[in-house]
Amino acid sequence: MSEKPNIFPGNWDVITETLLKTYELWFPQNWSPADLPWDECDSKNFTREECVAQSYWMSKLALFEKSGIGAFGSAALKAATHNMEDPTKKFLTAVAFDECRHDEICRRACGRLCPGFPYRFKPETELEVKALNNIMAMYENGKRYWSAFESAWDKYPLELIFSSFFFAEIGAQLIFREVGERSRNVVFSTAFRNITRDESRHLTGTLAMMERLSNEMNDKEKLMITRQMKHGFIYLSPLLFKPIDVFWKLPEDFFYYDQKLEEIAYKAGLGIPKVEDRREAWMKAIERHRSKIEDLGIPVPEIEEIGVEGVKINVKKGEDIIATPL
Ligand SMILES: [Fe+2]
Ligand SMILES: [Fe+2]
């Protein structure tokens, strides 16, 4: 009988130098959300509508940061119990910590702008009711995402799940750079510049993992990475584009109020790019990495919605989405 996976005896093997180097960058690039000038991000500087709208987007972002804490945290544990090379464990643990830091920015921003939002918020106007409904509907969907992600460990090889992490990081690096550049509030411009640096590190590390692990995969397994990329697009769509309904079950008027709230938040100084700009930026970000992915024998999926050409992958409505978060 084979032994149950265990963290002992462990190993200190370094096989992928790039992964070690990427993990080591975490130390000099460390930063603290507590040190930002939070007085600049305070309800006294904005109308109530602007406070709610900014908290709305930060709560939307928090969904993906929270799933990041969970996914990378559990991946770190899997890497340790399955005796993967040492930098894999440490890199994933550092990513999980980064996700905590990003969620902390969301928590502090909501706490300053609109205390209690979203979990203990009492809406007073129609717009506030809609904002809260949208977030709560998304978090309900998040539950479905998480159950599927947890069950994926028993359904798919570890190598496949680990090799698919990079796709979300492409999107993450992009959105945060854009938000940072467009933000006119010093808290957001600084926070998102720092988050972009975290995400660039995540992207380098996850690409290194993908490169190493996909080496030993056959074409069928590589096509599963392609499928995961498509899943990643669908999962991240509400933040990086607009919600794709094969997975996202949201209120009819979700997108109308989502846009309205994002517009108010933008005017208040939180630099969220418009949907059309997001579409183009995401497409370009994927194109920038296309040759690297294809050179490894991994086809890029067709993503019609944002104009990415590639292999057709059918995702059925209600199908489990096994994607990795930001
Ligand atoms: Fe993150
Ligand atoms: Fe990330």
Care to describe what's here?
The chain has 326 residues and is mostly helical. It has one domain (17-23, 43-306): Ferritin (Up-down Bundle), CATH 1.20.1260.10. 64% of the residues lie in helices and 0% in strands. Helix 1 (17-25) packs antiparallel against helix 7, helix 6 runs parallel beside helix 8 and helix 6 (166-182) runs antiparallel to helix 10 (275-295). It is globular and about 60 Å long. One fe (ii) ion (FE2) binds at residues 169, 172, 199, 202, 326.
Q: What descriptors fit this protein?
A:
mainly alpha, Ferritin, binds fe (ii) ion
Q: What's the CATH H-level superfamily name?
A: Ferritin, core subunit, four-helix bundle
Count of helical stretches: 10
CATH architecture: Up-down Bundle
Poorly predicted tracts of residues: none
Give the SSE map.
Elements: H1 17-25, H2 48-81, H3 86-113, H4 126-155, H5 158-163, H6 166-182, H7 186-214, H8 219-240, H9 254-267, H10 275-295
Helix pairs in contact: 1-3, 1-7, 2-3, 2-4, 2-9, 3-7, 4-9, 6-7, 6-8, 6-10
The chain binds fe (ii) ion (2 copies).
Summarize the structure.
64% of the residues lie in helices and 0% in strands. The chain is built from 10 helices and no strands.
